[in-house]
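[Discussion] Sanity-checking designs against the backbone

I'm trying to build intuition for which residues belong where. Below is a structure token string of 888 positions. I'd appreciate it if someone posts a full sequence so I can compare it with mine line by line.
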């Protein structure tokens, strides 16, 4: 082929790409850009084909069809998409023509690459295409999207006819079955939720491939070509067709921007890409409000949800409801349920189209009935609900009968909450509660909050319903018992519903949420006593998580103060349940045994205080001694070899250890304590089943010991997720840590042995901790730029403890952070008496109980009372964290 033809195509390709990029930058929609890229590709391939074919005499013009397949066939090429092209050859009986076609196909393939068109290329005969399609449904799918770009139209029509013939009735069912399996497997692989922190725009749930898969199924079942025809045939309501088109256009635009910005085929909206895309597409921060990246993700989540909804509806209609009856199990005749609903073909549907007009509250009851019967909702009933909701939505917020239906669903015995998700996704909950609708898909730009605010709320309520049903009795027996004993479950459920709805209205979302409760109670006529308790739950919903994870649970004054704040045992139980469900619904990994133990301890201590006479508690010393005895009795069967020293060990334990100790862990600690008394050090790594490990370190206590412990861990790539610092009365420090490797998973034995060796050198003074940690930080590959930034905040609390000053630190988690803080406090001349360490995503939320070692005005070590001294301590910590951020 002449080189000048390739050069012309290369120049036209560069020019065309620049023009399309300019259109994208000017705000062109996603569909406009992918269509333009596809059209440009068609033009250039046709030019190359014409130039090559011109070299053959007219009498020997080759029989060859160039067929676009896959995304190229659908005219959906993104800037870095592969170009899937099939060179369709004549059959083997046409010997000379076949040879000429193969030669042209080979020249064309080379010419495309030389011109800069990266193509996934295949040259096959019709017979070969049919044989491969029979064996591989992905090839069969690619041929469904085939269209002629250039060449022999008659040859291409033969391929079209063969493709249709292959999809006879039996083949249709086989194809749909294969596609459903692929559909479900892809969702499992890429995450079965649209609410992922870093969603995959193509392969994830609600991504572009979801809609493609659904349309493939609709095409072979009903011969529809695209969303428009799906709407015309009644497979989707027109509103959903319009919404799905807009959502797909946005996903295309986002994907185009990702390809342009990264200069590669990148379809995952990672944290660093989110910031980049938000800026490129013109999103801006609201002063004191929603961030630009949160606006971007809100729009993205809404688009993913619309695509997922439309895809599932199409598949439900085409692959299940419209399947041949011979492939479905036998079902009885229509079975009446009540005046509004019936069972039809194994699904719940409406008796007539006026159901919701007669009684709008049945919009809620439809899914409640389906949950009760254990059956799905028929697509006609679902579509009618969506249609009628557009008309009835304005009145639902004040429709008491509709709210009573929801209340009955929320408190119904045995309900697993499965009706809530469709009620939310279809917009019914948002119509009942404009407070929820305002937060639809409201993203929280952090690693800690996996779900949007509205989705977290719905998941939390459903989780509480499962807890009350007894479904979690094996894993959460105490919480299940407390939940099932509630006399006013509606108060608990409404408190949970409103607990986060104040977000986005100001800095204190708890206070804002309480204001929303008052307005709702007045709007709908909630019982005044119930309304007061719902309001209190919303105001206090963060208290138990804060106290349990960041305060010393052995501080009797703190427990009494909290008990007075709660006032009644019923409120305590409801707040305990709400706190658990809130934490467990933040992300799948957030609820840990460590957090569960702390929260349970706070609940039990507060409950014991409240049930005693007045707010008094049993004699403190007696209660501590009783706990020592109980722990010794529970440990004894597990530590027969250490029976002689068990009593001595238990006597030396601090009160806070007694409150949270588990017998198996205490037995391990007993053995290590014996070693540490003899050698000055002992350590043990105990792997758990959740990808983390419990690490126990014991050593002769001294100032700055925590800084040494954490230096060795940081230097060996061991991240600390939680920590408990204990000083035994005999002079041994017993510190426990929840740890994992920086890349995830429990630390390996090799890594632990290396950290142990470093620890021994640090304790002996043979190694400098600062130098050791610096070596680690220099080689750490901590991609802090890819995660949402966390601002550093320090707060001094001089109220919660009578004897110590508490320093709360919230900052971005980094390798060596705990060592940096512990070392800074040691250098500032303060002693860490208690450390409560927690990691939430990439946010560290730590609390340190401090005693000032500097003697001032004749006073011994105690609280940091002097303002200048307090400022010096916090300044030292702030400087150290800032320095670490610069290294990381």
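Best answer:
Here's mine. Compare freely.
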């Amino acid at each position: 082929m002449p080189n000048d033809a390739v050069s012309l195509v290369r120049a036209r390709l560069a020019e065309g790409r620049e023009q399309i990029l300019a259109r994208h930058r000017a705000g062109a929609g996603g569909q406009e850009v992918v269509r333009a890229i596809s059209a440009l590709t068609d033009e250039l391939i046709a030019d190359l084909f014409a130039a090559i074919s011109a070299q053959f005499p007219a009498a020997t013009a080759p029989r060859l069809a160039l067929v676009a397949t896959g995304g190229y066939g659908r005219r959906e090429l993104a800037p870095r998409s592969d170009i899937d092209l099939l060179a369709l050859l004549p059959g083997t009986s046409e010997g000379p023509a076949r040879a000429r076609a193969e030669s042209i196909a080979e020249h064309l393939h080379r010419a495309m690459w030389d011109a800069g068109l990266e193509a996934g290329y295949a040259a096959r005969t019709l017979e070969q295409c049919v044989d491969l399609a029979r064996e591989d449904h992905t090839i069969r799918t690619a041929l469904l999207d085939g269209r002629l770009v250039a060449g022999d139209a008659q040859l291409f029509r033969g391929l079209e006819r063969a493709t249709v013939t292959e999809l006879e009735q039996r083949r249709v069912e086989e194809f749909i079955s294969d596609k459903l399996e692929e559909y479900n497997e892809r969702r499992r692989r890429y995450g079965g939720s649209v609410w992922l922190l870093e969603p995959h725009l193509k392969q994830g749930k609600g991504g572009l491939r979801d809609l493609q898969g659904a349309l493939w199924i609709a095409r072979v079942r009903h011969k529809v070509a695209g969303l428009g025809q799906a709407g015309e045939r009644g497979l989707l309501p027109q509103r959903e067709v319009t919404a799905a088109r807009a959502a797909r256009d946005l996903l295309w635009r986002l994907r185009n921007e990702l390809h342009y910005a990264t200069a590669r085929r990148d379809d995952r909206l990672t944290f660093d890409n989110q910031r980049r895309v938000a800026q490129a597409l013109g999103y801006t921060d609201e002063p004191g409000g929603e961030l630009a990246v949160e606006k971007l993700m809100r729009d993205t989540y809404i688009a993913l949800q619309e695509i997922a909804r439309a895809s599932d509806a199409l598949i439900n209609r085409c692959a299940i409801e419209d399947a041949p009856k011979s492939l479905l199990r036998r079902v009885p005749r229509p079975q009446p349920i009540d005046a509004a609903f019936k069972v039809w073909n194994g699904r719940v549907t409406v008796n007539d189209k006026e159901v919701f007009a007669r009684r709008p509250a049945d919009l809620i009851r439809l899914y409640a009935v389906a949950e009760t019967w254990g059956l799905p909702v028929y697509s006609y009933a679902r579509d009618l609900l969506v249609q009628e909701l557009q008309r009835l939505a304005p009145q639902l917020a004040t429709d008491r009968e509709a709210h009573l239906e929801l209340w009955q669903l929320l408190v119904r015995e045995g309900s697993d909450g499965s009706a809530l998700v469709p009620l939310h996704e279809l917009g019914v909950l948002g119509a009942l509660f404009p407070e929820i609708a305002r937060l639809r898909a409201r993203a929280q730009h952090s690693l800690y909050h996996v779900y949007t605010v509205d989705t977290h709320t719905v998941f939390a309520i459903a989780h509480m319903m499962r807890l009350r049903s007894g479904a979690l009795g094996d894993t959460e027996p105490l919480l299940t018992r407390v939940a099932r004993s509630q006399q006013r479950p509606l108060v608990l459920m409404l408190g949970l519903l409103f607990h986060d709805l104040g977000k986005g209205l100001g800095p204190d979302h708890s206070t804002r949420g309480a204001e929303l409760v008052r307005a709702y109670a007045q709007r709908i006529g909630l019982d005044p006593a119930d309304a007061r308790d719902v309001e209190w739950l919303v105001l206090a919903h963060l208290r138990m998580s804060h106290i349990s994870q960041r305060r010393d649970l052995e501080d009797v004054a703190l427990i009494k103060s909290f008990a007075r704040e709660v006032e009644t045992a019923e409120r305590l139980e409801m707040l305990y349940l709400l706190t658990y469900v809130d934490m467990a619904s933040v992300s799948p990994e957030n609820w840990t045994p460590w957090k569960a133990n702390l929260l349970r301890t706070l609940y039990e201590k507060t409950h014991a205080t409240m049930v005693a006479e007045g707010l008094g508690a049993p004699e403190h010393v007696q209660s501590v001694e009783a706990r020592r005895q109980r722990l010794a009795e529970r440990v004894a069967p597990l530590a027969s070899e250490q029976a002689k020293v068990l009593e001595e060990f238990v006597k030396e334990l601090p009160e806070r250890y007694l409150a949270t100790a588990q017998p198996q862990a205490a037995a391990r600690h007993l053995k290590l304590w014996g070693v540490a008394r003899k050698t000055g050090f002992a350590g043990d790594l105990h792997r758990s089943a959740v990808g983390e490990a419990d690490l126990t370190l014991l050593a002769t206590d001294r100032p700055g010991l925590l800084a040494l412990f954490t230096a060795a861990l940081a230097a060996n790539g061991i991240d600390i997720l939680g920590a408990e610092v204990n000083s035994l009365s005999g002079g041994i420090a017993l510190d426990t840590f929840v740890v994992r490797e920086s890349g995830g998973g429990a630390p390996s034995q090799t890594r632990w042995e290396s950290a142990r060796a470093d620890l021994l050198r640090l304790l002996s003074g043979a190694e400098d901790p600062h130098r050791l940690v610096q070596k680690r930080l220099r080689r750490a590959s901590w991609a802090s730029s890819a995660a949402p930034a966390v601002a550093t905040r320090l707060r001094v609390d001089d109220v919660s403890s009578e004897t110590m000053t508490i320093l709360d630190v919230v900052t971005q988690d980094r390798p060596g952070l705990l060592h940096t803080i512990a070392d800074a406090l040691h250098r500032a001349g303060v002693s860490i008496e208690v450390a409560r360490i927690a990691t939430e995503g990439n946010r560290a939320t730590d609390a340190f109980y401090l005693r000032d070692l500097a003697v001032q005005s004749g006073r011994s070590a105690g609280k940091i009372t002097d303002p200048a001294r307090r400022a010096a301590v916090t300044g030292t910590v702030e400087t150290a964290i800032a320095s670490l951020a610069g290294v990381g």
